[in-house]
Amino acid sequence: MTGSTGPLVGVWQRISGILHFIQQGWERFWFSPADPVVLCFMRVLVGGMLLYTHIVWGLNLEAFLATDGWNSPEVIQQMQAGTVSPSFWWYVPDAMMWPVHWTSLSVLFLFWIGCCTRITSVLSFLICMSYSYRAQMANFGLDQINGLLCLYLCVGPSGSLLSVDRWWQVRQARRTTAAAGHHAAVPGVRPSPGARLALRLIQVHFCVIYGFAGLSKLQGDAWWNGEAVWLAFSNLEYQSVDMTWIAWYPWISDLATHATIVWEVFFPALIWIAPLRPLMLLTGFLMHLGIGGLLGMWTFGLIMIFGHVAFWSPSLVRRLLSGLPGCQSQPGSESPSSGCSTKQEKPAMNLLPSFHRILPLLLVTFCGCAERIDSFEEYLELAWHHERAGNQQQAIAAYQQALALDPVQPVAWYDLGVLYEAAGQPEQAVHAWTQALTHDPNYSAAFVNRGTILARQGSKELALEDFSRAITAAPSEFAPRRNRADLHRELQNIPEALADFSEALRINPRDAETWLERGLLRRELNDWNRALVDFEQATELDPGNATAWLQLAHVAARLGLTAVSETAQQRALELDPQQAEQHLKNQQPATAENAPTTDPVAAAGFQ
Amino acid sequence: MAKLPAVFLTGNVGMFPPVSAEQPSQDDPSLTSVASSTKQTAARFLFGSFRKIGYLGLNLLLLLHLVAIISAPLTIGPSSATSRRIWDFFSPYLQTLYLNHGFHYFAPEPGSSNLVSWTVTRDDGSTLSGRFPNFDITPRLLYHRHFMLSEVLGNSDPQLQPGIARGFARNLLREHNAKQVSLSTIRHELSSMVRVRVGGQLTDPDLYTEQPLGSFAREDFQ
Q1: Which of A170, A208, A378 is facing B69, going by the closest CB pair?
Q2: What ipTM was predicted for this assembly?
Q3: CA dihedral in degrees (B12, B18, B20, B26; nearest 10)?
């Protein structure tokens, strides 16, 4: 019996030992008394930010909080439907906005200076939350961090130092001791479990913030390919300093992007490793300084830095505040788990003196790594840039340089051809499209464009062949079918032309011009009834086409539809009196030849 | 920098005041009678029990708080059904404490921005046009508030957008004492590095796409 329970007892003892260890660690982590100086210093920083934030709300209070302001109550209530979104602003009539705002500012001021801190901290949190929920559409990260820091400052004794409360406490104590005839003593401030709890809550919440900020970024390609920092800097609406020079140094964007990801993702783990803590905080400080200085979000950058103060050791805070009398560092006050010590901060600081040694090397590297235009994509981008600016010849030159680097790019050849054609260089255009077709034999648009130029140059058979190959490559495309129809008509291949017009209209029945052209062809064949239908369709789809109305008038007259003819004639007169009068004067029925239509070959145009 | 009075900050951690005389210890010689001793023991037991329960409650609350603050960012899509269920449970708590945030800053990646363009017509027929955010709005925090407004409008759910636009129109009518206002949202696409290298500007016109949101008259809101 004893032999069988012995190991179980051992296991149980071991488990209970581990549990005891965890319990002790948990208690030490959350509740071991801490010097409240860090929390109080944070109150001063966060309180100042809260006050500033709310002063800025007041610069246009009606716009942000009034019923007829940006944050329409109906919309906000719709957004917040089904949620708990407490805000006292819902109960404040517009007429009372300013008194309530001034009262709020007064409370925030009292919190900032640490007056009745236990009460004003809670009130400040309620104020912060109420403004944020009411003006929800104008919120951003600053308001979130303001809210959570203020909440946690309510938990601990954030007014026990650096405050009016402290001043009052000391004054009272001095008065009492003086009245008793003793030497006036300054009462001490106990390390507080509440201060520890509040600081730990801030620390853990910041780990959650950075952890999720980092992990969520991993969903985006730009955070992997190094482009993200560039994208942030190239956003004109964020930018407060022109950082577009980074375009010539993509490696800066790459490094900053990767560093951001590494820092954010690993922050929740590395910040607890004492020797790494100064480095993590320094990196965070620089990152948020960058967000503030370069992306114009000073308030957000600063509030994040203020949150980092929770990770500072009390001795560091006291040293920082050493200019204030009576705030000497207490060597014995620091608990082992309270944060970084002076020793741990030194390595980070020691990096600075050696920086000047590597500066020349960095400068050489920096200047030598400037990106130049030397790839196909960059020349292509250059060509588009010149095209946008209307610099045709420069665009052609850029395409040529791009294609010299990578000649197997049909789209670039095609675009070059289009540019040549627009510049009045058809021979080069044909050459470019031929190159495009060499690399993509099914490039229907290239066939269409080359065919169009060839037809203009008189090589009608070759053009016909190009249109046919374009149709084979893309049977459902309208342009090659329509162009071939025009060419067939020109070559007097009437049945083929009619078939192509009909097929083009099946593909795109909304093209009025094609209805008109087929109508003209049918009229030439004395197919009056069908021509009438085509002209009716053309006028219905494009009621502003005077030619179509004239043709309809003529065909209707021919068929004895006097009313229809007169109406159409009247409409043509309204739209184009000159053409209509000429037509009436001549009393000549319009023919396909004299009808003012578009260039039959290029009717569908270039693609 | 002016220094604060010495008493303002002074707080020598470790200077514990003497233990108060009102707090009787177990060895207090004044506790002589058995009855009072029993009462004291019972009181201590009760106090100790409450303290223990309170301490356990605090720890439990702390644990739940940790789960809650993780559940908020965990629910931003893509998310699992379990994380959404946890969020459903904790959301009233987090919303009440204004901790319902996703913290997905610049994620999944920095994107294009949205602006709002407007033209108001006053009673005398004169018109005034503007756009926000614009760098004339100072301080920067106020600029950023306006930027967030235009971002919300530009990225909003199509069902919500008309309502938001209506609210914006009402505010513009009030601010400019106008009789009519027309609104548009403008998407400003980002420029690539290569484009900038070859001479492109962040303000190139082709990077802006305007989408009209309609016209609103003062009478619409009466």
Answers
A1: A208
A2: 0.84
A3: 130
Give residue A588's pLDDT band: very low, low, confident or very high (50, 70, 90). low
Query: A88: burial class by Cβ within 10 Å (0-12, 13-18, 19+)?
Result: middle
Tell me how crowded residue A426 is: count the other CB atoms within 10 A of its CB.
17
Report the residue from A84, A162, A237 with minimal CB separation from B95: A84
Q: Under CATH, domain A510-607 is a member of which superfamily?
A: Tetratricopeptide repeat domain (1.25.40.10)
Q: Per the CB < 8 Å rule, is B203 touching A205?
A: no
- Give the pLDDT confidence of B170-207 residue by residue, as tens digits: 999 999 999 999 999 999 999 999 889 888 899 999 99
Residue A510 near residue A541 (C-beta atoms within 8 A): yes
Other Cβ atoms closer than 10 A to A493: 16
Distance CA B184, CA A470 (A): 42
Look at residue A131 and tell me whether its pLDDT is greater than 60: yes
Which pLDDT score is estimated for A176?
85
Mutation for testing the A interface, residue in B193, B207, B213 having most A CBs under 10 Å: B193
Burial of A428: CB neighbours in 10 Å, binned 0-12, 13-18, 19+: middle
What is the separation of C-alpha A36 from the centre of its chain, rounded to a whole number of angstroms? 41
Is the pLDDT at A327 greater than 70, yes or no? Answer: no
Averaged over A314-318, what is the pLDDT?
Answer: 93
Q: Does A78 touch chain B (CB under 8 A)?
A: yes
User: Chain A window 293-312: which residues touch B at a Cβ cutoff of 8 Å?
Assistant: 296-299
| Contact yes or no for A417/A432 (Cβ under 8 A) | yes
pLDDT digits (tens, 9 = 90+) for A216-234: 999 999 999 999 999 999 9
Is the Cβ–Cβ distance between B189 and B154 less than 8 Å? no
CB A487 within 8 A of CB A463: yes
A 151-190: CB under 8 A from B: 151, 160-163, 166-167, 170-171, 174, 186-190
pLDDT at A303: 97
Closest-CA residue in chain B for A167? Answer: B8
Distance from CA of B46 to the nearest CA of A (A): 23
**Distance, C-alpha B91 to centroid of its chain:** 15
CATH 1.25.40.10 domain extents, chain A: 408-508, 510-607
Express each pLDDT in A258-271 by its tens digit. 999 999 999 999 99
Which pLDDT score is estimated for A596? 40
Q: Are B172 and B114 in contact (CB under 8 A)?
A: no
Contact call for A377 and B194, based on CB within 8 A: yes
Q: State the CB neighbour count (10 A cutoff) for residue A565.
A: 18
pLDDT for A359: 64
| Separation between Cα atoms, residue A471 and residue B123, nearest integer Å | 60
What confidence tier does A602 reach under pLDDT thresholds 50, 70, 90? very low
Instruction: Tokens for A74, please give them.
Output: 């109906």
pLDDT, position A360: 64
Give the amino acid at B53.
I
Instruction: Name the residue among A60, A186, A298 with its Cβ closest to that of B10.
Output: A186
Question: pLDDT confidence of A373, banded at 50, 70, 90?
Answer: confident
Helix or strand run (H / E) with residue B127:
strand B127-132
Asked if residue A97 lies in contact with residue A66, where contact means CB atoms within 8 angstroms, the answer is yes
Question: What's the alpha-carbon Rg for chain B, to the nearest Å?
Answer: 31
Are residues A228 and B109, on separate chains, in Cβ contact within 8 Å? Answer: yes
Do the chains contact at B14 and A330, CB–CB below 8 Å? yes
Question: Quick one: CATH architecture of A408-508?
Answer: Alpha Horseshoe (1.25)
